[in-house]
Every structure is written in structure tokens, then in C-alpha cells.
Design goal:
Elements: H1 15-24, H2 46-58, H3 71-87, E1 95-99, H4 102-120, E2 128-132, H5 138-146, E3 149-153, H6 163-169, E4 174-180, H7 192-202, E5 206-209, H8 217-222, E6 237-243, E7 255-259, H9 262-265, E8 270-272, E9 280-282, H10 291-328, E10 333-335, E11 343-348, H11 355-364, E12 370-372, E13 377-381, H12 390-406, H13 414-424, H14 428-443, H15 459-481
Parallel strand pairs: 2-3, 2-4, 4-5, 5-6
Antiparallel strand pairs: 1-7, 6-7, 8-9, 10-11, 11-13, 12-13
């Protein structure tokens, strides 16, 4: 339980003591420096991190809100946009902005196409977007924020969006289509060329979410891998989002959103001319825009270069293949689909070897594990840093599988019980309600941290009990009608 009586110290403390205390708080954090994480952090080495800190610190106080005040930041942003456009085979008309991350980039695409539709198709009162069911959740967030309905197309056996289903969902209120390059859950690049043809035929904008793969796929393609074309080479593509702070190995807080021309981008801008504080203009969602993140993105791209990114792609793909081969060799594990880059998921084909329980055992061995549903699986995003620990990971995974095989009851304890219940409760609104309660607990005064081992108080158990209660009451009502 957090201390609710904390207040600002009466007198300032020693800066040295403060830093020491801050570092001590890291004790229970995920160990990304030793490559024990498979998401969240894209870390090369301390030398690169120190370089990013220096670049960030050089522009620590500058604010990207006003490009006329800090012309250097506008130059960095313009250069990053131009270099990214070149990477995506964009011509001289391609424009864009930097953002704080992939979520902002995706949300801006939705806002932009909603406002464009208001301008060009004012009869659309209930706009919708057609997306793959595997699209990043940022689009769900954007839909909630900007009142745009989401129409989700299923994926096929190859975990790429079903094109016929996508085409059927399009209607007169559709303001945009979305494809992923790749989709986060399984590392698959949707058939952007085919979606582009649909977009052109229907005269609907197409956004490609390449936040995850934007700074990996072009270099994987350069290495000779068969990567589906996903960028501005596809005529129907009107915008692309790509994070520099992922495989671009920049400091956190740096993404890009690019449009085929200014006629699209202009709908992204916010302008208010009647504020007593003066004319207010914002190119993206944020007002204050940290100058350090913009500067560090420019610095990272300059320092690594095409050869550096290609080398990192080669190393990452090699260790990805090693991991996938190793996982497929561990019965009953199986990598899902045939991922196009350094992102993949794997499942258990034996119901007696619960994949979530395997994840629990891996965490007991010091790994930070990401879990997924539909299907139930474990997830990994690979960087060059993982080459040093690939063998250890596979050894620990092998041992974890055997432990679960020998003790199937582990599926009913800890995180496995929680995630298993979440995946199987059919009344999804119950899950949403319990997650909301959990968030309220975390962010209320004295908010508590999550411990999946507290099975008597976890959200899944609550959701399960609520579902059983609902089911009993429904059956009673049905009996009364007979």
C-alpha cells in the first residue's frame, strides 16, 4: 500500500542522496539491460544510451511547441520526417510530423481522417474505420476518444487480415482503412497491396501502422528477406506511422506520422484563433513537445545510419530464427504463423501444458514475459541484445515446460489462473468492469500494486464469479418464463 501522507519536503534534500534513492527503487524493475525483457525497452548498449542522453540533454529545456522560437528543433523534426519518408519510398510531396509515440501517431491518423471526412463528406454523421482484429489497440483508444466506430475484420489462417471480410465491412460511413506492418500479436504484415487496391477502388484513405516495424522491415527487405510491400510504393497508401524509439533505437518519446501530401496532413493541425492568450497552433496532439526526444531521434538516425540499421536487422533476424527454431523443437510448443520480422508468439498444442503456467515458470526464472489471448500464447520482440541470452532463454523454457507437464495443477495458480480466466470468461463486459476496478484501486489515494498471486482478490476471479452469478440469475428468469 502506498503512503498517502507524502508531501513536498519542507527543505530540499541532497541531490546525491535523491539519485541514490531513485536508483534503489529499481530493485524490482524488469531487467532490460541483461535482455530479460521482450517488449517495452529497445536497448542496444550503455554507450548508445549515454550518447542519447547527451543528445537529449543538449535540448532538455527546449519546447517544440513553437517552431519559430526553436528553429533547430524544427530542423531536426523536418530531417527525421524526410529521412523516414525516404526510407518508405516517399516522393518529395510526402509530409508529416513527429509525435510522442505510436499511440499518438495512430490516434492522429484517426483524427485526421475523421476531420477530412467532415470536410469532404459532411453527410457522414457516424464515421467508422475498418481494421484487422489484430490491429494495435491504439486504434480502439482513438475510436473512443474521437467517436469513430471500429469495424473489425477477422484474420485468416495465416493471421493476416481476411480481405473479403474487410471489403464486406466497408460502407458509406467508412472514413479510413488500416493495415499493420506488422501486427503486434504475431509479427505478420497484412497484404497492404491488396488493401491498397480496395482503398483506391472505394476512394477511402489507407493508413499503415508500422509503428513497430517501420525501422526494421526496410532493412530486413534489404537483406533479401521476402517482405510484403507495405509503404508508399503501394498507390493506395495515404499515411504511415513509424516509431523511432522502437527499432530506430532513439530515446523514448519519438514517433513519426507521414502523409502522402499536405492535403491530408492539414486535417491533423489544431488552430484556435480566438483565445485571449493569443493564436494557438498545434501540429499534433501535445502542446508542449519535449525538445530532447526530437533531438535524440535525429541524433540516433545520424549515428546508426543505413549500414548500422542493416547490421542490427541482420543480427536480430538471426537470433529470432534461432529462438523460433528452438521453441518449435520443444514439444508441445509451436510458433504461431510465419512472422515477417523480429516479433513472434508461440502457443502450446497440448491442453495439459498450460502456456500461461509456462509463462509463470519463466518469470520465476527471472524473465519478463508478455502474455496474449486469441489464441493463448506468449510473445517476444527480439533485438540484437537477445543474442547473448538466447541459449539461456531456451534452456529455461525447456525446463519450464517440463515443470508444467509434471505439475498440471500450476494452471490453476498465480498468473496462469488469472490470465486463463480472463481469456475464457465469455461476458467481456465483466472483464472490462473488473479491470476498471483494478485501475481505480491502483490510481486512488493509497493505490496498491498488482500481485497476480493474490488469487482471492484478482480481477479474473471476480469476473468469473460475476459471470457465474449472472448466469444463475439468467437461468432463473428463463425458468420463470417456461
Amino acid at each position: 500500500m502506498s503512503n498517502t501522507s507524502i508531501s513536498i519536503p519542507e527543505s530540499g534534500r541532497s541531490k546525491k542522496a535523491i539519485i541514490k534513492e531513485m536508483k534503489s527503487f529499481r530493485r524490482e524493475d524488469a531487467d532490460f539491460r541483461n535482455a530479460k525483457t521482450w517488449s517495452l525497452v529497445y536497448y542496444l548498449n550503455d554507450d548508445h544510451t549515454d550518447f542519447l542522453k547527451e543528445a537529449y540533454g543538449t535540448y532538455f529545456s527546449e519546447n517544440g511547441l513553437n517552431p519559430m522560437a526553436f528553429k533547430s528543433l524544427k530542423r531536426f523534426e523536418s530531417d527525421v520526417v524526410r529521412m523516414t519518408a525516404d526510407l518508405f519510398h516517399g516522393d518529395g510531396d510526402v509530409v508529416g510530423t513527429m509525435t510522442s509515440g505510436g499511440t499518438e501517431s495512430c490516434m492522429l491518423a484517426v483524427k485526421t481522417y475523421r476531420d477530412r471526412a467532415r470536410d469532404k463528406k459532411p453527410w457522414i454523421l457516424r464515421p467508422n474505420m475498418v481494421v484487422p482484429e489484430t490491429v494495435h489497440v491504439a486504434f480502439e483508444k482513438a475510436a473512443e476518444y474521437f467517436d469513430v466506430k471500429v469495424l473489425r475484420a477477422p484474420v485468416g489462417k495465416d493471421y493476416r487480415v481476411n480481405l473479403k471480410a474487410m471489403n464486406r465491412l466497408i460502407n458509406r460511413n467508412t472514413i479510413m482503412l488500416v493495415g499493420s506492418a506488422p501486427a503486434y500479436p504475431h509479427g505478420m504484415v497484412d497484404d497492404i497491396e491488396a488493401i491498397g487496391r480496395i482503398a483506391q477502388k472505394k476512394n477511402i484513405p489507407l493508413h499503415v501502422d508500422s509503428c513497430l516495424g517501420g525501422f526494421m522491415l526496410p532493412f530486413v527487405e534489404k537483406l533479401g528477406y521476402n517482405i510484403p510491400v507495405f509503404d508508399f510504393r503501394v498507390p493506395g497508401v495515404t499515411s504511415i506511422s513509424a516509431d523511432v524509439h522502437k527499432y530506430g533505437f532513439s530515446a523514448k518519446g519519438a514517433s513519426t506520422i507521414l502523409y502522402r501530401n499536405i492535403d491530408y496532413l492539414k486535417h491533423q493541425f489544431f488552430i484556435f484563433e480566438n483565445w485571449p492568450g493569443g493564436m494557438f497552433i498545434s501540429p499534433a496532439l501535445l502542446g508542449t513537445r519535449p525538445g530532447g526526444a526530437i533531438a535524440a531521434a535525429w541524433a540516433a538516425m545520424q549515428a546508426i545510419g543505413i549500414k548500422g540499421y542493416t547490421k542490427q536487422a541482420k543480427e536480430s533476424m538471426a537470433v529470432t530464427q534461432k529462438l523460433m527454431d528452438g521453441i518449435n523443437a520443444i514439444s508441445p510448443l509451436r510458433v504461431i504463423a510465419k512472422p515477417h520480422m523480429t516479433v513472434f508468439a508461440y502457443e502450446s498444442t497440448d491442453p495439459d501444458v498450460n502456456i500461461y503456467a509456462v509463462g509463470d515458470r519463466m518469470e520465476e526464472r527471472g524473465w519478463h514475459i508478455d502474455r496474449q489471448q486469441k489464441p493463448e500464447s506468449l510473445h517476444a520482440m527480439v533485438t540484437p541484445k537477445h543474442a547473448a541470452i538466447a541459449d539461456q532463454y531456451l534452456d529455461d523454457l525447456r525446463a519450464s515446460v517440463e515443470e508444467v507437464r509434471d505439475n498440471p495443477e500450476l494452471a490453476n495458480t498465480g498468473g496462469a489462473a488469472m490470465y486463463g480466466m480472463i481469456a475464457h470468461v465469455p461476458m467481456r463486459g465483466l472483464i472490462r468492469k473488473q479491470v476498471l476496478n483494478l485501475m481505480m484501486d491502483m490510481y486512488s489515494p493509497g493505490g496498491k500494486s498488482i500481485d497476480p498471486n493474490e488469487t482471492n482478490d484478482d480481477l479474473a476471479t471476480k469476473a468469473g464469479l460475476m459471470y457465474l452469478k449472472f448466469k444463475r440469475e439468467l437461468l432463473k428468469k428463463l425458468d420463470g418464463l417456461r
